Amino acid sequence: MKKIDTYRDWILENINSKLDEDKQKELRQAFDQYPELKKYEKEAAKLNGLLETHMHTYSGFFAEKVMQQIEAPDKGVKAWEKLPVGFKWISMPALALTVFLLIFSVWGEEKLDLDTLAGTNEVHVENMMIADWSDF
Amino acid sequence: MTNDLTLAQTTEKELIQQAIEGNSSAFRRIVESYQDQVARTVVSMLGRTQSAEDVGQEVFIRLYKSLEKFRGEAGLGTYITRIAINLSLNEIKRRDRKRLFSFSSQEDQDRLLNVPNEDLSEEEWARREWVQAGLQVLEPKFRSVVVLRMIQGYSTKETAKILNLPQGTILSRLARGQDKLKVILENLQSVNTPKEV
Question: What is the CATH number of domain B118-197?
């Protein structure tokens, strides 16, 4: 930490009347050691004056808007929290049914191959009728 | 200046406790007490834009959700300012990303926030706009220090705690930030579209 930066900080504190007496004394001595601090003090006071009055406020209904948002999303969060529970109730029976159908299918065919799993083992492509353009 | 003493400490503790227990009017009082402080931080960081109001609302929503975690080591005002500055910095990053993927040359497509009814002279209003424009040109890492230290009036130690940075970094950023802001404000008097310094 540079000593001069600390003195610059103290100048700001002093402008805002927050610097204690011991530091004020040290700062006065620092002005002799660092002549540039005098110039900084003037500029800082000017900038501080500009920024100090830099006030902003929100619209009159700001608090209402915040409270509405706090009270409304609660319901949404509760509904969202129910989703995984609902998903469990649907997904578990669906998974059980799928496993049952798979076992049933294997049992019936007495073998397990890709056609069985895909449900295409009865399809014979060569028997499919393909219309010829001359038929039209 | 900080509003940490806006509510008496005991009342503030009671209000926080009541808000945690679900008393919405207690939380509403907290919002009303600190909304100007949040506005000063967020509008100074983001400009007088709609997103500054959205971020302001988000500050209090985050506060509401994290009230139980608030241990009271720092004042409530400092805690709220920490949320406000973090959300503002996030919003600046979001804007930068948006600008990167946008072909628009507009700095911020955000529409301007309605001006609250204030009795300001034309000269005072122009001066405020000039300072606001200058702050928006300042890099966010310097802007955040200038806002906390010079607009909100936090000490270097408090600013360091809010930004989670060493005090030495705050001092050097403040010094550089002031120098840059001075140059920006001088330039702004003659140039309409300054570049980031």
Answer: 1.10.10.10
